[in-house]
TrEMBL record, chain A:
The chain crosses the membrane at residues 12-32, 58-78, 102-123, 143-167. InterPro entries: DUF2975. It comes from Galbibacter pacificus. Signal peptide: none annotated. This is DUF2975 domain-containing protein. Keywords: Membrane, Transmembrane, Transmembrane helix.
From TrEMBL, chain B:
This is Helix-turn-helix transcriptional regulator. InterPro entries: Cro/C1-type_HTH (IPR001387), Lambda_DNA-bd_dom_sf (IPR010982). Gene3D superfamilies: lambda repressor-like DNA-binding domains. Residues 13-62 form the HTH cro/C1-type domain. CDD domains: HTH_XRE.
Length: 185, 67
């Protein structure tokens, strides 16, 4: 059963990794081709338009590539862990360390997105609701939008990160119990 | 660890080889080696019983507490 699930997960991760790879290549080609006339750009739900400076576009592009590369690396690490699971080497110190790395990597990605979001959110939101006359409505709308967007961006990153951290702790504890069991004569 | 295994002393007293004892008590020589070198984390009562039976000794002859 574990072997079959590991096989399916391994294939899914491989497909996802290939997808991320081509997405990164596509992003680089798109950026290189339309470098002089960038109109629209998206970074995890934040819309950049022609009103933004080229420097902003370049910074956002670089951060996107870095985040994607990190995601690719983390997927590769997770794939290696799944390969170990397939060989039934579950409770090993290496697996615990790799899952911990994945958790920290996800936290880094989350913090990067959070930083970019906090930098760009204020003026992007004000631009979106400039038609609202009442200050209270504007404030409540802004707050709701802020919390909603932040939650939708960070929940899918921080929850798996915490999950991976928990699994890594379990594997570490499992490794201690396994070692003790192996060394009980 | 303050618990010392004196298995090699007992083996020498009884003039018995490690692999012979391992075979008699039904554990592998690798596991007996782990026990002899003090790398073991724990010892089962059944293993201790078997060793004591084969070497005709008390658990205290094999295990020693040293601060």
């Amino acid at each position: 059963m574990v072997k079959q699930i590991s096989n399916i997960l391994h294939i899914m991760l491989l497909v996802f990794q290939i997808f991320i790879f081509f997405l990164t290549i596509g992003e680089i080609i798109h950026f290189a081709e339309k470098f002089d006339k960038i109109h629209n750009d998206y970074f995890f739900g934040i819309h950049l338009s022609e009103s933004d400076t080229p420097l902003t576009h370049i910074i956002v592009f670089c951060i996107t590539i870095l985040v994607m590369s990190l995601l690719f690396y983390l997927l590769n690490l997770f794939r290696k862990v799944i390969l170990d699971f397939r060989k039934e080497f579950v409770f090993t110190e290496k697996n615990g360390k790799q899952l911990r790395k994945i958790a920290f990597g996800l936290i880094i990605i989350g913090l990067t997105i959070l930083t970019v979001f906090l930098i760009f959110f204020p003026y992007k939101t004000n631009y979106e609701i400039s038609n609202a006359n009442d200050n209270t409505i504007r404030w409540v709308y802004n707050l709701g939008l802020f919390v909603g967007k932040l939650t939708s961006l960070l929940f899918p990153i921080f929850i798996p990160a915490l999950f991976f951290m928990l699994i890594s702790k379990l594997i570490k504890e499992g490794n201690i119990i396994k070692t003790e069991n192996d060394l009980t004569i | 660890m303050p618990i010392i295994i004196n298995l090699d002393v007992m083996l020498a007293k009884r003039k018995m080889q490690s692999n012979e004892l391992a075979e008699k008590i039904g554990i592998t020589t690798a596991n007996l080696s782990i026990l002899k070198t003090g790398k073991a984390k724990a010892i089962r009562f059944s293993t201790l019983e078997a060793i004591c039976k084969e070497l005709d000794c008390q658990p205290g002859d094999i295990l020693e507490y040293n601060q």
